Amino acid sequence: MSAEATNPGAHSRRRGRPRIDLRRLGRAALLGPVPRDRLPDAIGHVADAHRAHHPDADLAVLHRAYVLAETSHRGQFRKSGEPYITHPLAVTLILAELGAETTTLTASLLHDTVEDTEVTLDQVRAEFGEEVTYLVDGVTKLEKVDYGAAAEPETFRKMLVATGDDVRVMSIKLADRLHNMRTLGVMRPEKQARIAKVTRDVLIPLAERLGVQALKSELEDLVFAILHPEEYERTRALIAANSGTVDPLTAIADSVRAVLREAGINAEVLIRPRHFVSVHRVQLKRGELRGTDFGRLLVLVAEDADCYAVLGELHTCFTPVISEFKDFIAAPKFNLYQSLHTAVVGPDGDVAEVLIRTHQMHKVAEAGVVALGNPYTAAPGDGPQQSGDEREDPTRPGWLSRLLDWQQNAPDPDTFWSSLREELAEDSEITVYGADGRTLGLPAGASCVDAAYAQYGEEAHGCIGARVNGRLATLSTVLSDGDTVQLLLAQDASSGPSSDWLDHARTPAARIAISGWLAAHPEGATVPAAAPRPQVNVPADRRTAANAMTDLPDVRVRLAGCCTPVPPDAVTGFSVRGSAVTVHRQECPAVARMKSVGRAPVEVRWGDAAECRVTLVAEAFGRPRLLADLTEAIATADAAVVSATVEPPSEQRVRHTYTLQLPDAAGLPALMRAMRDVPGVYDVSRAQHPAAAG
């Protein structure tokens, strides 16, 4: 924006300053550009670039905006010595070449007027309307005199909030930063480094997410040159040396053209040189560069189906490198990017990477959201779409929605600034699905904790677990693209997150919410919701089970503690030492083991007594009062606890084992249902392993 402006006249924002006569400037614009010695028809280049994309565009508003910008910036100079008007002109030309529509270009010409001159937002609104005013205000920096050291992060916060309502705000900011980076050489090295780091950490990731690859690539090279000058020079030397050699991509491109022409596919085959950072990355990956590593082939066709036809011909007539194939048409990237990626071996053994896309895909790949025009006009003449006071932006991606949500809970500028950089450091996104079919966009590597806060906000404090693709999972489970997630919430309003949730949270929204809860509940930080409970053992009553009978004389019959059979289970018995017979359920693993070693089963049957004993295992997510709630459910079912064991939690899950005396075996299903209904309990089953109670 105006980082390089110097103004001998000290154009500061003060109350009582003179008002510019916009009507007079408007009349001057209708008569044509005001002649200047150095800028005779500066807006002409912008107009030509704009008409190349929008032949029917009305250029009158651009002329009016240029006259206002030139007049208001008159007397200001960049540190390079050029008139300041060259900066908004250059920014506007960048956007015009990308295909931005007229409103964006108008705002771009005026983007520094409110910040650096006497022009006010009210004046812009009166002359150019509400939309242009919104865009200009969105990119206007906050004053350091008001915000101090927080001015930069708060400016970005303001800009991102405005971008959430209109993505064109960020388009202007990216073009503004690109031109400033192009002319950064006149600044002190330390200031160059500071601006380059912010560009690397914030602006380049934003350009990637908005799909503006043309700006992102050049910004990367400019940052690379400032922050890594030695590596940049080595890369520059490699590219310069390769430019003097025969490019093997030329021969492969000719072969591809011949193959597609013979197949009757109308396609344009181009050689796309890699930019500096791309060449550097390939060198780091492969070590020694091949001649084909300095560029890629780009095949442009008319229709989506043609892309797959090209792919088929290439894989038929050349040897494909299957590991390099990616289909971003069927599964577009989260930043609107669509293309087929492959690599083939040319006639001379050289491997060439190939990008296949339609002309429209290419336009979006280069310009991203800039190529989409005005997202608020459904059809010519319909005007902006509105929903109450909030615009409906079809281009607003999930990552931006997440960012706008969590930034509201980060009032501290330092927290916002660090969280923003962390959020933007994630270079890929996944989509997961809720049990109700809703979709959640999350950064790659996100866990169930992140999904909980993305879906429920602060209600996720009470999350006790999840099912991922129908199977029970801990909150620490890392999600994959396409997973279905059902989040389980506790009914206890006092439930809250534990401090170890922070280890599994990848998104700022989750980290900020968890940290806020822990700060407000210091006792919760030291006693997490899933804190291990001490093991509890209730002495077992070793009475025999009188309702199990056998025809063997003088033997005691007892129920096996490993499976605790109850009527009407199918059972079998085995003689053990001490003149006793142990009764097992027929499906108990112990039955198969004893038969395998030659132990003969003993016939047993149930008697007439209704009372029985059973061992149940309750698996649950750890939370406060879980043991109390389970024992209350058991008591309500008229069951007596003979013994109980609570194991220490593992990954927030805890296992409770109860041996219970029931007055009637018929009540067992109802008891198990009552235990499953306890919040946090996800399974109750009959014991299938040696229990504490015999």
Strand content: 15-25%
- The whole-number mean of residue pLDDT values reads 80
How many helices? The count is: 27
N- to C-terminal distance = 79 Å
Overall SS class = alpha+beta
Shape: elongated
The biggest sheet, with number of strands, parallel, antiparallel or mixed sense and barrel status, is: 6 strands, mixed
Q: Give Rg in angstroms.
A: 35 Å
- Compute the number of strand runs: 23
Give the helix level as a range of percent. Answer: 40-55%
Task: Enumerate the spans where pLDDT stays under 50 for 5 or more consecutive residues.
Answer: 1-40, 377-395, 525-546, 690-694
Brief account:
With 694 residues, the protein is of the alpha+beta class. 42% of the residues lie in helices and 17% in strands. The termini are far apart.
